[in-house]
Write a structure and sequence with these properties.
This is Transglutaminase-like superfamily protein. The structure is a single chain. The chain has one domain: C8orf32 fold (Roll), CATH 3.10.620. 29% of the residues lie in helices and 14% in strands. The protein has helices at residues 25-35, 41-55, 59-62, 71-77, 82-94, 176-184; strands at residues 4-5, 100-107, 116-123, 132-134, 165-171. Strand 3 (116-123) and strand 4 form a beta hairpin.
Length: 201
């Protein structure tokens, strides 16, 4: 599946906002530290991906009940669910001038029940002809997501026979249901994840 930017204006994928707040000093400092020793955007993007994937645990894996949704909070608290981690990676990429956005999958249990929306990050490296999706949720037994621009190595390949799907759009800002679920949750225990994107039900 080829990701499709929802906004034709590439500058939208470099902008800072309340969620992807790459103007925040902590985001800028983290990006600068990751970029030390390389001026290559590809190398930096891979380091930023691996940092978010490996150094910031997924809240459900670690049992951390705290909710983070703003990129700077994810980096400060060093925790987050998939949406929050995708925000952090997008912010680190944008901080170094790499266009980045957000993508989503609809995933289910092995019997097709309990659908949830899963968050990814997409980026467009200089000279690239297409967007690439990355999944920085964090690896664990049975999950082995890796950095890949031509061949995707996502945490969860979709299973269409179970009603799972990839949403093709690359969002410049997270859709309202994603931010609303994070802001409404008091802890990861009680969080209610979206089951689909409204415009693609």
């Amino acid at each position: 599946m080829e990701p499709i930017p929802e906004n034709p204006d590439l500058s939208a994928y470099l902008a800072a906002d309340d969620v992807i707040d790459h103007h925040d000093p902590l985001v800028r400092e983290t990006a600068a530290l990751l970029a030390e020793g390389t001026a290559n955007p590809h190398e930096y993007a891979e380091m930023a991906f691996e940092y978010v994937r490996d150094a910031i645990p997924h809240s459900f894996d670690s049992g951390d009940p705290r909710i983070s949704w703003r990129a700077s909070d994810v980096l400060e608290q060093r925790n987050g669910i998939c949406y929050a981690k995708s925000h952090a990676l997008a912010a680190l990429l944008r901080a170094r001038g790499i266009p980045a956005g957000l993508c989503y999958q609809r995933l289910t249990q092995d019997d097709g029940s309990d659908p949830v929306l899963h968050g990814l990050t997409a980026l467009l490296l200089p000279g690239a002809s297409r967007w690439s999706r990355l999944d920085a949720r964090g690896n664990k037994p049975g999950v082995d997501a890796r950095f890949g621009l031509t061949t995707e190595r996502l945490a969860f390949p979709v299973r269409p026979e179970l009603g799972e799907r990839d949403y093709p759009l690359v969002y410049a800002a997270p859709p309202p249901p994603v931010v609303a679920c994070l802001r409404a949750a008091r802890s990861t225990t009680g969080i209610v994840l979206p089951t689909a994107l409204p415009e693609a039900r």
